[in-house]
Amino acid sequence: MAAVTIKRLVKQFGGLVAIDNLDVEVKEQSIHSIIGPNGAGKTTVFNCITGFYRPEGGDILLDDHSMVGLLPDQIVQHGIARTYQNIRLFPNLTAMENILVGLHSHLKAGYFGIVLGLPATRREEKEANDQALQLLNFVNLSGKGDLLAKNLPYGDQRRLEIGRALATRPKVLLLDEPAAGMNPKESQDLMDFIRHLRDELGITIILIEHQMRVVMGISEKVTVLDYGKKIAEGTPADVQSNPQVVEAYLGRGSSVQHTRTAS
Amino acid sequence: MNPAQTQKLPGIQMGLIGGVCLVILALIGIVEAFNERHIVAEVISMGHTLLLLTAAFVAYLTAARSRHLGFGRALGHVLLAGLIMSAMLALLVLVGQAVNLRQVFINASPGLYQILIFHQESLAAGIALLLVAGLLTGFLAWLLHLAPQRLRRVLITALLSIVVVGLLQDLLQPILGVWAPLATMSGWLFEVSGLSLPGAIGLAVLVAAVTALWSRQSTAVRARIQSLAPERQRNLKWAAILIGLAVLLVLPSVLGIFLSEVLTIIGLYVLLGLGLNIVVGFAGLLDLGYVAFFAIGSYTVAILTSPEIGAYQLNFWQALPVAVVLGTLAGALLGIPVLKMRGDYLAITTLGFGEIIRILVLSDVLRPWLGGAQGIARIPKASILGFEFSGPQEIYYLLIAGCFLVGFVSWRLRDSRLGRAWMAMREDEDVAQAMGINLVSTKLLAFATGAGFSALSGAIFATKLGSVYPHSFNVMISINILCLIIVGGMGSMPGVIVGAVALVGLPELLREFAEYRLLVYGAALVAMMLLRPEGLWPEAMRKRELHDNDIGAGEPDAPRG
């Protein structure tokens, strides 16, 4: 069964067609990668799914509910969470507070409950703290809860961002280049971690990634975009041998040059 | 400063910069205005102190910057800087004698030149003295820079204590006069016009001794407190809080009417600051029309209680909740049109809203209800169980209660789901929304809460003055509050208090500053941005930065909440 279905999605910026009639089906509890050269529209797809952009056409379904037209805060409550290509933590909040913000929509404390310190509010706050500590532990940041997010090293920031996304208890997690700037050892750890997320928590993962080692290592399905269009889809092996994909990445090679000189 | 940026000739450059500063200080009249008061009687006046401190600061910076040049050449540079600074002042005197500068600089009076040449009969002797003073300042600054850090701190604290006690003499003398033994000490410490010379020396020695002792013992004391059982630590904390409370409660009767008045003004600004701190500091929404809610609170109380309007004639306690509710509603209403605006756009729009309210209360159309330019007078005082909040000494308690209430609410909100949502929104609005935060309700709650606090403050303001006028609610109030938040530290609640004391309290105490208030604000803001952009008492100091060092040891997370 499909967790996320993208149907004939169109997104334009002025005259530029960033996404052109895109159809993607992401299977439940799968790891699905979206790849493509720079400017292919990968992040735009994420922005459409999470409600940052409103698409001009088509539909995005999460378990048969349309997400198009909902606000980002409503979409995350339906169970889609994301991370960002350039890390976007709340830099002047602590790691702990970053995670607690992620828990926001699962807390119910009202204004007067907070001010009066009602027992229910206190209990909820304590439980939230416990959960946040567990999550910090889960993303391997235990003991760093009181550090400001901006003071954490790069790798910790990446993991904290994933932890914050997990705090929203997503069914689908969108990871935008999580392995950017990581060395082979770190990307290997990341791959294990992503598999762990899927296997242990049953989360569907959609991944944008440039490191082919990561993509080919963990994806069950790969969708290749170029200029907003889907040019290939299939298992990592299928995609790797697809001539159109090679062309999109490496250019048209000698055949193009011949045509040019001829004309 | 990195090596590539170090100056080739720090003495000349710093000397010129310092000289320009000194000449400007002299020409804007601040030196002459300050000269009315003596820090140490018959020895040094406030005007001279200002020049000396500025010169010493610049010379000290020169010493720090020329350190890499070696011992002797550094001394040369520092002396040169001191000489250049005094020479520029001397040049000002000479030019001023030859040409009438007063047509341009109205403060360039003969009195100023007399101050600059130390009231010497002959010009030559005065200028010579000025140059020597410059050299001496440089030399002393160089010595200070050479001194080991601990000694340096002790010396600076001792010298500054003389300046501070000298500045606040009018304030301290009546306080010390309350109790006979202290009064004797005060008689020894002060003369009619300033600190006595033995008093000043005694004070410096005492402060130096205490500072030296503290710098030696503070770590040990702190360690001992840390090693106490948690229960006893808590008792200690409660004892400190109770003592603090007791001091707060007896303060107005000890300080007398004038100082209580200053305290109530500070209190009003603390109240306003705590409210705006929620909007600007927590939620990051730059609101420049904040005074509008202050006005709404004041006018609501005035209309509901004053017999001049006569329609309602409620008492203060009946009018207060109405004022707060109306302020809160107005805050939410203002929030609606500006929901989509950020940064500068938000600031301009809210600025406009503040002006709209002021012009509305000024308008002739609404005169029958709002009193127009004459405002509304005869607002009755608040009273509770026969205790009337009449003068500043009584209003003070009303404000303390207000501050505690508002402080408590802010504190509760800050460490809650809502406070985190505000801060997340301040940090990154888009991501906050993607974390499930409803921007509309979160923003409106911030505006409404801040506005409610402002209205509460306005209500107390109305009963304090007994009358309200439109001109009390101009945009400068909003700017002042914003300044004190920035100086105190954005988002920090103790910072609001520190900021209010520094920017509102001090100018009230040092009446010479009153004319230069805006200049001091500007200078303070620039200095803050350069030296301490996080504010005097930043929020982050809570614990996170302090814990940075312990993390490596793998310390488990302290339980929060």
Q: What would your notes on this structure say?
A:
The complex is a heterodimer of chains A (263) and B (561). Chain A is globular. Chain A is α/β, with parallel strands linked by helices. Chain A has 11 helices and 10 strands. Chain A has 2 domains: 1-79 and 170-263, P-loop containing nucleotide triphosphate hydrolases (Rossmann fold), CATH 3.40.50; 89-167, no CATH class. In chain A, a hairpin with a 2-residue loop joins strand 4 and strand 5. In chain A, the strands form 2 sheets. Chain A has a 6-stranded mixed beta sheet, with helices on both faces. Chain B has helices spanning 10-27, 30-34, 46-65, 71-98, 110-116, 123-146, 149-167, 169-176, 180-189, 197-227, 230-282, 291-305, 316-335, 343-362, 367-370, 392-414, 417-427, 429-434, 439-465, 475-488, 493-509, 517-531, 544-547, and strands spanning 38-40, 44-45, 382-384, 387-389. In chain B, the strands form 2 sheets. A two-stranded antiparallel ribbon of chain B has the order 1-2. Chain A binds chain B through residues 50-52, 71-73, 76-77, 81-82, 84, 88, 90-94, 96-97, 100-102, 104-105, 107, 109, 111, 114-115, 117, 121-122, 125-126, 128-129, 133, 136, 142-148, 151, 164, 168, and chain B through 409, 412-413, 416-418, 420-421, 423-424, 427-428, 430-439, 445, 540, 543-545, 547-548, 551, 554-561.
